[in-house]
Design goal:
The protein is an alpha+beta fold. The protein contains 4 helices and 4 strands. Strands 1-2-3-4 form a 4-stranded antiparallel sheet, covered by helices on one side. A hairpin with a 2-residue loop joins strand 3 and strand 4. It is extended and about 60 Å long.
């Protein structure tokens, strides 16, 4: 299956192949229904990229949910984890002990949800627009 996608500054072609699991698969992986190969290529801005990812699923190779499941995974990764890692620099946070990392992560997720609920697609733009504008920030709470 080949899928084309064009977004803001990105043009992506995905080729998805589904295989039966290999017969010599380690017994620890019992229950694997299929192996999925996703080849991605295209441009981000004007820069070309190419990658290959492999997935294992408990679903059968004929399942129509395979492609949807992979897209849902990347939707979460791109809309939540990437933002928290890159915009909020969560991976290099100095808060590493006690409940601080979990509490801050929860707070950051709540802020992202609040910003998106108020129509912001770009979290960076939202932060720029709201910085030093306490009245605007507090208007979200009413």
């Amino acid at each position: 299956m080949i899928h084309h996608e064009k977004t803001r500054n990105r043009n992506t072609v995905r080729q998805i192949e589904v295989f039966e699991p290999p017969e010599n698969l380690d017994p620890l992986w019992m229950g694997v229904g299929c192996v999925i190969k996703v080849s991605r290529s295209g441009t981000r801005g004007n820069e070309p990229f190419k990658s290959i990812s492999y997935y294992m699923s408990s679903k059968s190779p004929q399942s129509r949910r395979l492609v949807d499941g992979i897209r849902e995974h990347w939707l979460i990764e791109n809309s939540l984890h990437w933002v928290k890692d890159v915009i909020y620099e969560e991976d290099i946070s100095p808060q590493i002990s006690g409940f601080a990392p979990k509490n801050l992560s929860l707070l950051k997720t709540w802020v992202l949800t609040l910003l998106r609920a108020h129509g912001f697609d770009s979290i960076k733009a939202a932060i720029s627009e709201m910085s030093h504008n306490l009245k605007y920030i507090l208007s979200f709470c009413t």
